[in-house]
Write a structure and sequence with these properties.
The complex is a heterotrimer. Chain A is mostly helical. Chain A folds into two domains: 1-142, no CATH class; 143-222, no CATH class. In chain A, 74% of the residues lie in helices and 0% in strands. In chain A, helix 1 packs parallel to helix 8. Chain A starts with 5 loop residues before the first helix and ends with a helix. By secondary structure, chain B is of the alpha+beta class. Chain B has two domains: 2-86 and 241-263, Immunoglobulin-like (Sandwich); 95-238, C8orf32 fold, CATH 3.10.620. Chain B has helices at 109-123, 130-144, 158-164, 169-182; strands at 2-25, 35-45, 50-54, 60-66, 70-83, 146-147, 166-167, 187-194, 196-198, 201-208, 211-216, 221-222, 227-233, 242-247, 252-263. The longest helix of chain B has 15 residues, at 109-123. Chain B is globular and about 60 Å long. In chain C, the strands form five sheets. In chain C, strands 3, 4, 5, 12, 19, 20, 21 and 22 form an eight-stranded mixed sheet that branches. In chain C, strands 6, 7, 8, 9, 10 and 11 form a six-stranded mixed sheet that branches. In chain C, strand 4 and strand 5 (125-131) form a beta hairpin. Chain C starts with 9 loop residues before the first helix and ends with a strand. Chain C contains 15 helices and 22 strands. Classes of the chains: A mainly alpha, B alpha+beta, C alpha+beta. Chains in contact: A-C, B-C.
Chain lengths: 222, 268, 439
């Protein structure tokens, strides 16, 4: 439709970020969960430290339950999903009813997984729906600008998470390049120098992950 | 006939700077049979694009938005008015609008009791016209309230003011309106300027025999040539001189200064 | 009627409704919750001829109501001619003095009217209420139809039903007709409004911008939509879903945070159209309702096609006598209340309540209307797979573009409580699709 208000611009961006946060943290959780089954009972403490969230959990069981589905826990996957939902619901006008259904479905799946003995199985459905959401964003949303803003949010979030997780050079370099390519195609205000610095950082011998996280969060300037 | 020069000054001081200050002002007098506005000019600061309009009561409005940061909002209106005898309405008005109570004038027990007194007194006047009755009510309002600042607010109803037995010009005017309306006399609220120096003033107009006549219950006088009317409405709320919203966290303090002086009229 | 294949798909349809987030918001213990609006697959079916009759009556009624509002904020002939007593107008909370003398673009006041009807057991239709401010509900049967067609295409092959999804076209035509030149926007109070789904759905379908108050601004007597870069786009028509008193803090409630300062002044100067016009409440007041048949005769010189439910105004002495004599048979309505509140059935009152109510009625006769209790025709719903009769009403939508348009469908609401006559969604009712047969 051409014109987007500042409120909706923000919502698109945060819809991108929160959908990514749900997706990556759910996948990451699945990996850690597997390790926790037979060893490393305290792996969740490390998990929390990595993602920079307070470790408020008293046991592995509590962590597995609350981190996924506790709506009271502001850092739970559920809470992040609800933030994505809150943004999506106000964007029917910009992105259309069809894409929103996938976020809506992830919310239902998340609620259902609460009742399962292995919530991680329910989590898979959430991941499936987020992937479907991204697919339909690409396929159905006509406005390139709208698509690019959502994707920029997603790229920034992923870079932020990968930086915290200190992933290998290839992976993080790839995310930096994807972000650099995407953000210039939006009309978001951003800091070119920070993008250049990110490009340099991933080439250095010793990668400064903390700086990457800082830059990812500061790259958007409006 | 007399010629009056007027100067209306309003300032709003904000405790902290505010911005995007959107305002509507009803502060410009309008010509009627009773007052001819010969000159009238205004300045508003901070200066910005200002629109003129008219509300559904026939009052003149100024409105606009001051986007820049400001701590002091100033409005000055100056002009000359030729005062005469005659209708203080604007002609072709909907009289029925002023027959019915608003939440500020709706009478309860005390006002109804007072009205019974009023009727007793007017019953003694042979062939009392609306005007005669309203003048008696004005006297009774004046007796019933003691002028006292600070005991009432802009939201005080006529009934509440009567219970407090005091108030300011707004309360006097609304109590008189309540009595008149309850007695089937169309009555309305008026904001204006009074000869001399002071704040803005409020009084009442009643509809008698095809014309609006001003009665000033605070001073217990019939409005003649020392009251310049600015606006009228069903009650105080229709006549707010200033309405505004702004961005920023600030307390506001409003000050109004009115000067009205007679001009020597050269008699030809 | 034979059992529809559609009713076997009840679960599928409701799952789809959930998928599309067809919900309404509700406040429970001060927290906002979204609830699914329960849908029953058995439609209300209205035959072609029956609907043609309703259509004639609805057009007539809404045309007369528009004449009335125009008159009240203009010449006031109907008052001068003593058809409507002036106190009913001036004391009505819906009468807004600031609207006096303001003529909206194209002279239309009620662009979108929701007329609530019931069908009596005798088959006769009665109008229960006119909603001329912000009537809601059209989006629900629209999307339900879409999903029913998807779930049971055979049903729609076998039955010839007018496609109600063209509400979008009617609405767009109405907005375009009113437009003074500029963008079309739908103004919502926001996400936490009960009907937010509808606001966003209608915006999506009509291609209008969905906005909240802080995305709009007034400058130099025009209304603008401000985009992220600060660019201002002129707005020519605003379908506002916020009530009059919150519309403009400079004219109405000063504390309103969801309105747009000075929008009323822009409207007064004819620079933007407001759908619906402010001040319409004067015509959908429960007290004014009594006079609608008289308005039809007065303005159109026609006999009303549709009837009111038999109504008494205790304001008139004669009616007061009747009301007191037949008190137990009547339903009493407080004219100031809406949404199913302020409605009491005399036969459900205790002796004390009755006494108190009659005292209040005598003290404030203008405040109430009394109506005969209509024995509605029940409509079946499926409960646990079994057909069970329930009370249901019909909200028909009439749109005023260059001519009156009646939507060939409507929102049928039913009460879930078998004893209740109150079908409002805010009180826990469900809804049905309304089929108008095309053959």
């Amino acid at each position: 439709m051409g014109i987007i208000s500042i409120e909706n611009l923000d919502r698109l961006y945060w819809l991108g970020r929160y959908s990514e946060r749900v997706y990556t943290s759910a996948r990451l959780f699945a990996t850690s969960f597997d390790r926790m089954i037979d060893m490393n009972l305290d792996d969740y403490a490390q998990f929390c430290a990595l993602l920079d969230i307070p470790n408020i959990y008293r046991s592995r069981e509590e962590f597995c339950g609350r981190y996924i589905v506790d709506e009271q826990d502001p850092n739970s996957i559920y809470s992040n999903l609800m933030r994505a939902y809150d943004n999506a619901v106000e964007l029917r006008n910009e992105i259309g009813s069809e894409p929103i259904t996938y976020i809506q479905l992830s919310v239902y799946d998340m609620k259902k997984s609460k009742l399962l003995s292995a919530p991680i199985v329910g989590l898979q459905k959430v991941i499936d729906n987020i992937l479907a959401f991204w697919g339909i964003v690409d396929d159905m949303i006509e406005s390139e600008n709208v698509r690019n803003i959502i994707k920029t949010g997603k790229r920034i979030e992923r870079l932020d998470l990968y930086g915290r997780l200190q992933v290998d050079r290839t992976s993080i370099a790839r995310e930096v390049h994807r972000l650099a390519g995407r953000i210039q195609r939006t009309n978001l205000h951003y800091d070119r120098e920070k993008i250049e610095e990110l490009n340099r950082l991933v080439e250095e011998d010793e990668i400064d992950y903390d700086r990457i996280v800082e830059l990812a969060d500061g790259v958007r300037t409006d | 006939m007399s010629m009056l020069r007027f100067h209306y000054h309003m300032e709003i001081a904000f405790s902290e700077p505010v911005w995007d200050h959107v305002y509507t002002l009803k502060c410009l007098p309008k010509t009627s049979e009773h007052q001819e506005i010969l000159e009238c000019s205004y300045t508003i600061s901070p200066a910005n694009k200002i629109q003129e309009g008219m509300d559904s009561f026939g009052n003149r409005m100024l409105y606009g938005t001051a986007e820049e940061r400001q701590s002091l909002f100033l409005v000055d209106v100056t002009g000359r008015a030729k005062m005469r005898e005659g209708d203080s309405g604007y002609g072709n008005e909907d009289i029925s609008l002023y027959r019915y109570h608003t939440s500020l004038t709706r009478p309860e027990e005390r006002i109804l009791e007072l009205l019974a007194d009023c009727r007793e007194r007017t019953a003694q006047i042979p062939k009392a016209r609306v005007y005669d009755r309203a003048c008696v009510y004005m006297g009774i309002v004046r007796e019933s309230l003691a002028y006292q600042k600070g005991i009432t607010t802009i939201n005080t109803t006529a009934e509440e003011a009567l219970a407090l037995r005091g108030g300011v010009c707004q309360d006097y005017a609304q109590l008189l309106i309540a009595l008149c309306r309850e007695d089937k006399i169309p009555a309305r609220y008026v904001v204006g300027m009074l000869k001399g120096e002071g704040e803005s003033h409020a009084w009442t107009e009643v509809y008698d025999n095809g014309r609006w006549v001003g009665l000033d219950p605070t001073n217990n006088v019939v409005v003649e040539q020392s009251h310049i009317k600015i606006s009228h409405g069903r009650d105080y709320r229709d006549c707010s001189i200033n309405r505004g919203v702004f961005r920023g966290q600030a307390d506001q303090r409003q000050r109004i200064r009115v000067e009205v002086a007679e001009e020597a009229v050269r008699i030809l | 009627m034979q059992e529809l294949k559609l009713t076997k798909q009840a679960e599928t349809v409701n799952e789809l409704l959930a998928r599309y987030g067809v919900k309404f918001g509700i406040y429970k213990n001060n927290t906002f919750q979204e609830q699914l609006f329960p849908f029953d697959t058995i439609p209300r079916v209205i035959g072609k001829a029956d609907f043609a009759y309703l259509e004639r009556g609805l057009k007539q009624r809404v045309t007369a109501l528009n004449c009335f509002i125009k008159d009240i904020y203009g010449e006031k002939k109907i008052i001068r001619d003593r058809v409507v007593p002036e106190e009913f107008v001036y004391i009505s909370s819906g009468f807004l003095a600031p609207c006096d003398g303001v003529v909206p673009p194209k002279g239309i006041y009620a662009h979108i009217a929701g007329i609530d009807l019931v069908q009596g057991k005798d088959g006769e239709w009665y109008v229960l209420e006119d909603n001329l401010r912000v009537p809601s509900g059209a989006s629900y049967p629209m999307i339900a139809r879409e999903l029913c067609r998807r779930s049971s295409p055979e049903t729609f092959e076998a039955n010839h039903v007018e496609d109600n999804r063209d509400y979008t076209r009617l609405l767009r035509r109405t907005m375009d007709h009113a437009n003074t030149g500029g963008h079309t926007v739908i103004l919502t109070p926001g996400r936490y409004n009960a009907a937010y789904f509808e606001h966003s759905y209608l915006a999506e379908k009509t291609g209008a911008h969905l906005v909240t108050g802080n995305e709009l601004m007034v400058e130099n007597d025009y209304l603008y939509f401000v985009d992220y870069s600060g660019k201002k786009e002129k707005v020519g028509v605003i379908y506002r879903r916020i009530s009059d008193e919150y519309l403009d803090p400079m004219t109405f409630r000063e504390e309103s945070m969801i309105g747009i300062p000075h929008i009323f002044d822009v409207y007064r100067k004819g620079h933007v159209a407001l759908i619906n016009a402010p001040g319409n409440g004067v015509a959908d007041d429960k007290g004014i309702y009594y006079f609608v048949p008289k308005m039809i005769r007065y303005y159109l010189d026609e006999e009303p096609v549709l009837q009111n439910a038999p109504t008494y105004l205790p304001f008139y002495e004669e009616d007061m006598k009747y009301v007191l004599a037949h008190f137990d048979d009547l339903v009493l309505k407080d004219v100031a209340e809406a949404g199913g509140y302020g409605v009491v059935f005399a036969n459900k009152m205790t002796a004390q309540e009755k006494e108190d109510f009659i005292a209040l009625l005598k003290k404030e006769p203008r405040r109430f209307i009394a109506q005969e209790v209509i024995d509605f025709m029940d409509i079946d719903i499926l409960e646990g797979g079994v057909r069970t009769p329930r009370k249901a009403d019909l909200r028909a939508f009439v749109l005023m573009a260059d001519e009156p348009l009646v939507w060939k469908s409507g929102l049928t609401r039913f009460s879930r409580n078998p004893d209740s006559f109150i079908v409002n969604s805010s009180q826990g009712g469900g809804f049905k699709d309304t089929w108008v047969l095309s053959q």
